[in-house]
Amino acid sequence: MKSIYSHITTPFLALAFLICISVSSKAQTIWSDNFNNGCSANCLATAWNGWTLVDNVGGTTGGSPNNWYISCAEEGLVPPNCGSSCIGDQSLHIGADPGSGGDIGATYNETGATNATYRLIVSPTVSTVGKSTITLKFDYIAYGSAGCSDDRAQLRLSTDNGATWPVGYQYCLTSVCCGACNGYSQGQWTTYTLSLPAAFDNNPNVRIAFHWKNNGNGSGTDPSVAIDDISLSSVVVLPVTLVRFQAAKETNKVKLNWTTILENQLSRYEVERSVGYASFSKIGAVVATGNNQAGQINYIYNDAELFSKPVYYRLKMVNNDGRSTYSNVARVGSATANENIIIVSTNGRNGKMQAYIWAGYAVTATISVYDLQGKKIATFPDRRLITGDNRLDLNLPKISSGYYTIKVETSNSSQKIPIRITKKFLYGK
Ligand SMILES: [Ca+2]
Ligand SMILES: [Ca+2]
Ligand SMILES: [Ca+2]
What we know:
This protein is mainly beta. Helices cover 0% and strands 47% of the residues. It folds into 3 domains: 20-25 and 239-332, Sandwich (Immunoglobulin-like); 28-235, Jelly Rolls; 338-427, Immunoglobulin-like (Sandwich), CATH 2.60.40. The protein is built from no helices and 25 strands. The radius of gyration is 24 Å and the shape is globular. Mean pLDDT is 83; it is low at 1-25.
């Protein structure tokens, strides 16, 4: 099972030949917790470091509910290790009721309504005042019911000190399984990374929580969930400016050239290629020569493979600490009119959707959403698309999970050929 809602670094696309600013970054820790309380089993999470429990969130807890513990009964291992019993590194995890087996690691009872559990374990308040571009990171195992439909763990975030936990800040946790997970083996420790929305910047009232739901229907999908080594960090922006990245088809090769200034702590440029809009893959790398704060540096990379389809290139700019950012995308090969507007990806759930659209020129478009029977669900007229990457955040009426179609239409007013493109997407999964 793949982690469905773990953070995905979307490969943003932009038009070649434009000046593009990129950044390298170095993280500063704002807050962290390794849950190392020295406990081997049965220590309640509420006894540690300012964590608090809110009960009956999203349902009513039964008489013998599961509970949040901090102990090494579920060892907090480094990804990609499989779950383990105690070695000595404590984790935050769900175990059974103390009277029904208690804390024997990430596991739980689900024999019926008595075990129903709707419990939110809430971090202390974290202030991000003076910080921006914040990343949440933790390691976790969470092998539960498919699509988080039955018993499951969720990450939840609050910008108002826990007064509200908006649906838009709730994220299902599922990791891959190590062995036969429904035969009570454990999941695989996985790193979860989330770039927090701007509402979490410069905010004195940030809280992180984990919600455990055991719906008490008598059917469980052990094991449960464990979390360790959680941190919030802020990116200290150190400018590395990519002035230009171009690709040009020549007789027997594609010549990529790019110019940078203000390189700082930069390791290399990895060249990635996508043929016909397949996913990008690395085809080579060029060592960053400069780390020169003042001068302009030019690089050339030749790709000897030629294709009949349009080919897209981008640079992955990797810092000495392993962090990376992507350049704009440069294209070679002729594009049809419709390829001047591309629906890169669309996703949605909980009444919201995001459409990532690449535009070859600035244009105004109408965005519509249809169900598979062709019934219009929503229309968003006069959406301005800029040249390059566009992320559109759209609110949808209440609809059920499933496949829908997004349509992007432009008109004649831009003095370009009107474009009408559609793409199917999965909502609510
Ligand atoms: Ca650990
Ligand atoms: Ca730990
Ligand atoms: Ca259940």
